[in-house]
Please model this.
Amino acid sequence: MVKSLTSEVEVDIYDIIFKRKSIRKYNNSPLDESVLTQISEEINNLTPLYDDIKIDVKIISGDDVKLRGMKQAPHYLAIFSEKKEGYLTNIGFMLQQIDLLFSASGIGSCWQGIPSPKGHVIKSSDLKFIILIAFGMPTEPLYREDTSEFKRKSLENITDIKDANELLEPVRLAPSAINNQPWFFTGTKDMIQACTNKPNFLKSVFVNKYIPIDVGIAIYHLKVSAEHFKKTTTIMFNKNETTPKGCNYLATLKLDNEW
Ligand SMILES: Cc1cc2nc3c(=O)[nH]c(=O)nc-3n(C[C@H](O)[C@H](O)[C@H](O)COP(=O)(O)O)c2cc1C
Model:
């Protein structure tokens, strides 16, 4: 359960996964200062995937962004990171926590790989600029009404683990750049390895940079799902892990407690 950013209500993040969507149409009015302050506090409390990678997240206005054809939002998170092994997966894992919290709070948001911050924003951090997330009050429906509205691969195409359909459904619904869904989950129901698929050449030109971010997002959805089923989760990295051919290993999620 998380506390909404806009009211005293507690919301189950697991439920949000089944209805969230990217929002691209916003009311231009800025959010209340008190909400922005609370967002900053939440950003400071995000759970990292790797706790030795510095990140920096700034709240900037739509006027600080080169839109490159995208519609303007009143606010953006400009996300910066130290460049270390796993840094992009870490960003996906950490910032998806905020993306779901926005949705749980009635605030629309969308990961934005195409726009970029103006030069003065880039210069304001010592860390490498990674990606933006647009946010603000939506002027389109915030939620999907049914999971059939998600355009996603079937479970058989993203996993070979038997008897884990319920556990992996939230992972299947995770957002990704151009809806590429570059993930594959293998292993057992208690020891799940997250891998990436190699995209075809045409796609790879655009999406390669985003693949580790996408998988970080999916790993966060898997953690939420496992915790919903009362499992304690430990995320581990074992470079010697054997995975199916064509699968590029990223991380292992160990689920404790009996099913
Ligand atoms: C890393 C990343 C980058 C994205 N970049 C953009 C973008 O530049 N412009 C945009 O409109 N949507 C962008 N998206 C949103 C995806 O298009 C969207 O998540 C996907 O199509 C699935 O739709 P849904 O989020 O509504 O479920 C991005 C998503 C991710 C995860």
